[in-house]
Design a protein that fits this description.
The protein has 13 helices and six strands. The N terminus is likely disordered. A hairpin with a 3-residue loop joins strand 4 and strand 5. The protein is mainly alpha-helical. It folds into two domains: 201 residues, Rossmann fold (3-Layer(aba) Sandwich), CATH 3.40.50; 69 residues, no CATH class.
Length: 322
């Protein structure tokens, strides 16, 4: 089973100064390697209380380490999907790491059955179990994979913007402070500090599209272009995100219930205003729903049905949901 080795100054009981007054991790923050990594992370101010989603893999362990080095008051939240026999041991790895770092710990156990759409179901269940505003260990490599996955799914501007921080036009989503780091850097950090991370065999399962993007598509793109595609995709996502934020700002000034204003607005702004109006929690709004509502606004029809058994109708020039 994966575990952890004791870094300098720690005894065999797994207790060190970090669990008492944090001085050991203040010293860690002065380490030039850790300082370099922290300079490319986006953490809240020191002493902020945060929750970190920690699976036990190198990315999430690095998140836990860097959050403590940044002076945050951290609770590690581990979600056990119960899908693999070794999952109980992975919870123990996270518990040991949290104790070494002087962080709190919360373990959430889920019950999931193997079968179709397992990856999506597990992800949805995990995020439902994690607290709002949780920090996650997604890296630049995850960002590049997400952009490609969204491209394959036919996503628009928002999807091609990749993982964006929370904003007024988007629901609360996990915060991802490690998007400026590479996956190889998180693994190196864990090894440097003596944390032996969990290696999830499902990350190589070809049933999951993300794994095929990671292990087949990205290497192929590197071969075809003669360069590492991850920085290129991340830079492109950043540019798209900037444009999406501008559209969010402009669309927020448009009343999505005013049929005449909506019909007269540029289509891109009208679509965005309607999508924001229809959004329910963190569920994406189907493009077909947006187009049906715009048809009602234009007067092509007086009402339409949208996802979830809801209805949008126009009355006296106003759109109303029911």
């Amino acid at each position: 089973m994966a575990g952890s080795r004791h870094p300098p100054g720690q005894d065999a009981a797994g207790q060190d100064a970090a669990g008492q007054d944090g001085r050991a991790w203040d010293a860690l923050a002065r380490d030039p390697v850790v300082r370099d990594l922290l300079s490319r992370c986006r953490f809240p101010p020191p002493d902020t209380a945060v929750a970190c989603g920690v699976s036990g893999g190198p990315d999430s362990l690095a998140l836990l380490i860097l959050a403590r080095a940044a002076g945050l008051q951290v609770t590690a939240v581990h979600v056990d999907h119960g899908l693999r026999p070794e999952s109980a041991g992975e919870a123990s790895v996270v518990a040991e790491a949290a104790a070494r770092l002087g962080a709190g710990l919360k373990v959430v156990r889920l019950v999931l059955e193997d079968g179709p759409n397992l990856e999506a179901r597990a992800r949805q269940a995990r995020y439902q179990a994690l607290p709002a505003g949780v920090l996650t260990g997604h890296t630049a490599d995850d960002q590049a994979e997400t952009v490609l996955l969204n491209l394959l799914r036919g996503a628009g501007l928002d999807g091609l913007s990749g993982m964006r921080p929370p904003g007024p036009a988007r629901p609360v989503v996990p915060v991802r402070p490690l998007l400026g780091l590479r996956r190889r850097e998180t693994a190196t950090l864990c090894e440097r500090l003596g944390f032996e991370a969990v290696h999830d065999a499902s990350n190589h399962d070809p049933r999951f599209l993300r794994n095929r993007v990671r292990h087949e598509l990205l290497p192929l793109l590197a071969s075809l272009s003669g360069r590492d595609p991850v920085p290129v995709l991340c830079r492109q996502a950043g540019l798209m995100a900037g444009e999406a934020e501008l559209l969010d700002h402009l669309a927020a000034q448009l009343d999505a219930t005013d049929a005449r204003a909506l019909a007269a607005a540029p289509p891109a702004l009208a679509r965005r205003a309607v999508r924001t109006w229809l959004r329910d929690g963190d569920h994406p709004v189907p493009a077909a729903d947006v187009e049906r509502v715009l048809a009602v606004a234009r007067g092509d029809s007086t009402a339409c049905e949208i996802t979830g058994g809801r209805r949008v109708a126009r009355t006296a020039g106003r759109l109303r949901r029911s």
